[in-house]
Design goal:
The complex is a heterodimer. By secondary structure, chain A is α+β, with helices and mostly antiparallel strands. Helices cover about 30% and strands about 25% of the residues of chain A. In chain A, helix 8 packs parallel to helix 9. Chain B contains five helices and five strands; from the N terminus they run E-E-H-E-E-E-H-H-H-H. The relative contact order of chain B is 0.15. Chain B has two domains: about 80 residues, Ubiquitin-like (UB roll) (Roll), CATH 3.10.20.30; about 80 residues, [2Fe-2S]-binding domain (DNA polymerase, domain 1, Orthogonal Bundle). In chain B, strand 1 and strand 2 form a beta hairpin. Chain B is α+β, with helices and mostly antiparallel strands. The chains are: A alpha+beta, B alpha+beta.
Chain lengths: ~800, ~160
């Protein structure tokens, strides 16, 4: 690793490169994940899945299961004390199905037994009679009036739209008009840790659930609703999370409720751990999109109009679909100035596995659409892909597709120049052309760029809390309502606390998330954690510093405004203390002491009854959205990025190898260089899987795979050398100017790779993933063909 | 049947049927929950342990297969409080994010370095291809193995 570089900034901790605060626990095996929690006398829970993608339930017979030795409870919908459903957007996701099953991951009954084996046997002995219904599997056909209905209200889950100017006028002013269709596939988060929860009945008639959850507060709401308990008696604690990527969000409510129902019924702790097969069958995926893009430009390459129609497969339940598709509409044009825009995104219910949040949240799909389109437009105009992009990119004071005037540094052009300079884009492109005329494998280079709204935007309430408690020895306990799920939030928030209180990171203990400890801070999603929790942490720290400063000032005999908090010391800084407060240059106070340990100061404050605890709360700046006009200030700020990929394509086998990758992102400010690099490398790898081989394939509501033997993930052999160029244009709203990175790092990798592959092939493939068949033949193979029939 | 084997340098005897998966023996009978189950099918490598020094998936191993043999789990890689150089390097380089794949990757890397003290990237790729990681994109895992390799060779030279 490159030596941890400390840039010359005004900061002590921010911008350094530190290992994750939980790294030692994780390398020694001490960290406890959901499935690692056990309690004395615990039972093992199992679910009885639906056997059909779409059917009415005629009867559920559990009598044989109940009578098995070692079975402690068998529950169905009839045993639910409260509501049998949950969901923030549409509260219709069923915990235990009563009348109907809507996909294969639906659950009709649950069992708690003394062992996994007995529980499995009991599940097998449950018999359910169904009346099979026709399966709705195509999101476009689902919206036809003739389609069977998945939900009583019809199959339209949501219709999101953006309207700007008049596309008719825009197209009439265009000299070049292109119409293209693109499609992306359904993919699985594939967090390495399958879902696991442990539910314990509490002494107060309540329940405590510990497990692999990303969004504690909405799960607590769901538990309270289903169990008919007051929120105060429901406690949700997060175990160390083995990856999530948006995948252990609110929908974990279902597993938590099932374990809790069994625990309350039996009065014993109940543990439920998904196998990978269960996880693949039941857990939601990223929406597959079918996208129609129509773009108009003048001969010089300036965009005049874009008309976009998208159909998303929501699957059996709404989950986060309304929010995911909303982000898609806002970002669908890509980071370009388009005077006339008309975008419609429809999400439809089907009997496929349902879809919801996944890293990118509606952006990876439209990034593939808009970035493929820009390459095609460039070709049509006889320009290169960089030129056409640079002509149209958003700039300072540009107006977005939703009519929002950008009032910060807009750096999409800068990001594009970074990656194309580093990757010598035009030169490489030209030399590849020559190479490809006579040599094999074919080489290609591609670029992509995006803009992305930070945090939730006009999606919903956006506020978060952090508590900070300074101890009398100068150590610190911090706790956040937004959680660490492996992305390094604990480390980043610790760094900010370190910066504000002048302590070293090793003095901070960051507690695991627990609903009983902090107020509802909303979900840990939307790359909002560093930003929101960061601001909240700063507020808490500032409050503590305000309280303890007068005491320090008195002890050191110096004015409050000349105190310096650094490296676990408080000192009087009469002059600029370049070498820090420990050095001889530090000023000497009138009282004779020049500095004191933070712990000493904390003890003195404690003795005087000064509170060393603070709760910081931060509410995001205002956003707005008008559903009628499809216009508004969608997000309070945006981030910008660009990627470049080089590939080698074996045109005989269709094999693609990504040989080089360059990624540039404006993050406002790098908080933890180590963490930031990790986000980019991981995001690129995930985008590579999305581009080349990942696909959760289903036919008539039945998945054709159930584990990692067939769901292929990028391995250590697949990832390219990746170079990163961070751009730091501090945002006036962000903590130390920081914005976000987790999702932007992922969303444009696939389109850069796809553009590179198409560049190598001299042929456009408009559907992901770029499997061997698509690369070799230009189209995918249908299931029938694979089985040896002649095919078309 | 009585199963006698060595776990983390300690002679261990368990009453078994012979058909249990080794991962379940470790996690449930011996409380060694550092070994993770990610797929149960030998695809992800999260359950990797060292069997007589070689990395194997403990989810594919039956108890009868380990009689008389020596198993090292993540808990037994280092002695006492000090970290094994591979563990230290993973922590230092930030090769650890969610950490679920980490025990397996650390053990596979330790086995690689025991075998080849200064592996090339190609050798690393071959040795670690059985360990999936969804967070890191593997870059910092390369860096970790390289750092551990340097530190271990330096340590060896010093001892000579």
């Amino acid at each position: 690793m490159p030596a941890p570089r400390k840039k010359r900034t005004a900061f002590a901790a921010i911008g350094t490169s530190v290992p994750n605060v939980d790294a030692v626990d994780k390398v020694t095996g001490r960290a406890k994940y959901g499935a690692d929690h056990d309690r004395k006398g615990q039972l093992y829970g199992r679910v009885k899945y639906s056997e059909h993608p779409h059917a009415l339930i005629l009867s559920i017979d559990v009598s044989r299961a109940v009578n098995l030795s070692g079975v402690r409870a068998v529950l169905t919908h009839a045993d639910i004390p409260g509501e049998n459903s949950f969901g923030t957007a549409v509260p219709h996701q069923v915990v235990l199905c009563s009348e109907k099953v809507r996909y294969l991951g639906d659950v009709v009954a649950i069992v708690a037994a003394d062992s996994e084996e007995i529980a499995a046997k009991a599940v097998e002995s449950i018999t359910v009679k169904y009346k099979i219904l026709p399966v709705v599997s195509d999101p476009v056909e689902a919206l036809s009036p003739r389609s069977p209905a998945v939900h009583a209200g019809g199959n339209l889950c949501v219709h999101q739209k953006v309207r700007k100017g008049d596309v008719g006028t825009g197209f009439s002013q265009s000299e070049v008009v292109l119409e293209r269709e693109y499609a992306t596939q359904k993919v699985e988060h594939a967090y390495m840790e399958p879902e696991a929860v442990l539910a314990e009945p509490g002494e107060n008639g309540g329940i405590t659930v510990t497990g692999s959850v990303q969004n504690l507060y909405s799960i607590r709401r769901g538990l309270a609703r289903v169990l008919a308990l007051p929120l105060g008696r429901v406690r949700v604690r997060q175990a160390t999370l083995g990856g999530s990527f948006g995948g252990k969000d609110e929908a974990m409510t279902a597993l938590c409720c099932r374990a809790a129902l069994l625990a309350l019924k039996t009065g014993r702790p109940v543990k439920m751990v998904n196998t990978r097969e269960n996880s693949m069958r039941e857990s939601y995926k990223r929406h597959p999109y079918r996208m129609k893009y129509k773009v108009g430009a003048d001969r010089r390459g300036f965009l005049k109009a874009m008309e976009i129609t998208i159909h998303a497969d929501a699957g059996a339940y709404a989950a986060m679909s309304p929010f995911v598709t909303w982000r898609s509409t806002v970002q669908a044009t890509g980071p370009y100035v388009v005077p006339n825009v008309r975008t419609d995104v429809y999400a439809a219910y089907t009997n496929n596995c349902y879809t919801s949040a996944m890293r990118g949240f509606g952006s990876p799909q439209v990034c593939f659409g808009s970035e493929s389109l820009m390459d095609e437009l460039a070709e049509k105009l006889g320009m290169d892909p960089l030129e056409v992009r640079l002509k149209n990119t958003l700039r300072g004071r540009s107006t977005t597709a939703t009519g929002q005037k950008l009032n910060h540094t807009v750096s999409v052009g800068e990001a594009l120049l970074n990656v194309t300079k580093k990757g010598r884009f035009l030169k490489t492109r030209a030399s590849n052309r020559k190479h490809n005329e006579r040599s094999h494998p074919k080489k290609g280079v591609g670029i992509s760029c995006s803009y992305r709204g930070v945090s939730l935007g006009a999606e919903g309430v956006d506020a978060a809390g952090v508590t900070v408690s300074l101890q009398t020895d100068g150590s610190v306990v911090a706790s956040s309502g937004l959680v660490d799920m492996g992305q390094g939030a604990a480390t980043t928030i610790s760094l900010m606390v370190a910066e504000e209180l002048g302590v070293t990171v090793d003095r901070i203990r960051f507690l695991g998330a627990d609903t009983s400890r902090l107020p509802d801070s909303g979900p840990t999603v939307a790359s909002r954690t560093s930003f929101m929790a960061g601001q909240a942490a700063r507020r808490a720290c500032k409050e503590i510093v305000e309280r303890i400063r007068p005491v320090a000032s008195e002890v050191l005999g110096c004015p409050v405004d000349s105190l310096l908090f650094r490296n676990n010391w408080v000192s009087h800084s009469t002059e600029r203390t370049r070498r820090g407060p420990g050095s001889r240059k530090a000023g000497r106070g009138r009282a004779g002491r020049k500095r004191l340990r933070l712990g000493e100061l904390a003890s003195l404050c404690f003795a005087r009854g000064v509170s060393l605890f603070a709760h910081g709360w931060y509410r995001a700046p205002a956003t707005s959205w008008d559903e009628r006009t499809g216009q508004g200030d969608a997000y309070f700020t945006f981030v910008y990025g660009a990627n470049l990929a080089e590939v080698e394509v074996d045109t005989e086998t269709g094999t693609v190898r990504v040989t080089r990758f360059v990624s540039s992102h404006d993050v406002g400010r790098v908080l933890n260089l180590n963490g930031a690099r990790g986000q980019v490398y991981g995001g690129v790898a995930m985008g590579l899987g999305y581009a080349l081989f990942e696909e959760y394939a289903e036919q008539d509501g039945r998945p054709s795979l159930e584990n990692f033997d067939e769901y292929l993930l990028p391995t250590v052999s697949d990832v390219p050398e990746t170079e990163i160029v961070f751009i730091e244009n501090p945002d006036r709203l962000g903590p130390y100017g920081a914005k976000s990175l987790g999702e932007p790092a992922c969303e444009i990798a696939a389109p850069a790779i796809a553009n590179a592959v198409c560049d190598a092939l001299g042929m456009r493939v408009r559907e992901l993933p770029l499997t061997l068949e698509r690369v070799r033949l230009g189209r995918g193979l249908s299931r029938k063909e694979k089985r040896g029939s002649a095919g078309p | 049947m009585k199963l006698k084997f060595t776990v983390n340098r300690r002679a261990t005897t368990l009453e078994v049927t012979g058909a249990e998966r080794v991962i379940d023996l470790l996690r449930e009978r011996l409380g060694l929950v550092g070994t993770k189950e990610g797929c149960g099918k030998g695809e992800c490598g999260a359950c990797t342990v060292l069997l007589d020094g070689s990395p194997v998936c403990s989810c594919l191993l039956l108890s009868s297969q380990v009689a008389g043999r020596e198993i090292t789990t993540i808990e037994g890689l280092s002695e006492g409080e000090s970290l094994h150089p591979v563990q230290a390097a993973f922590a230092e380089t930030g090769a650890v994010q969610c950490g679920f794949c980490t025990p397996g990757l650390v053990l596979s890397s330790a086995a690689l370095l025991a075998d080849i003290p200064a592996p090339s990237r190609e050798q690393m790729k071959r040795a670690l291809a059985g360990n999936l990681c969804r967070c890191t994109g593997y870059q910092k895992i390369f860096e970790a193995v390289e750092l551990a390799s340097r530190n271990m060779r330096r340590e060896k030279r010093r001892r000579r």
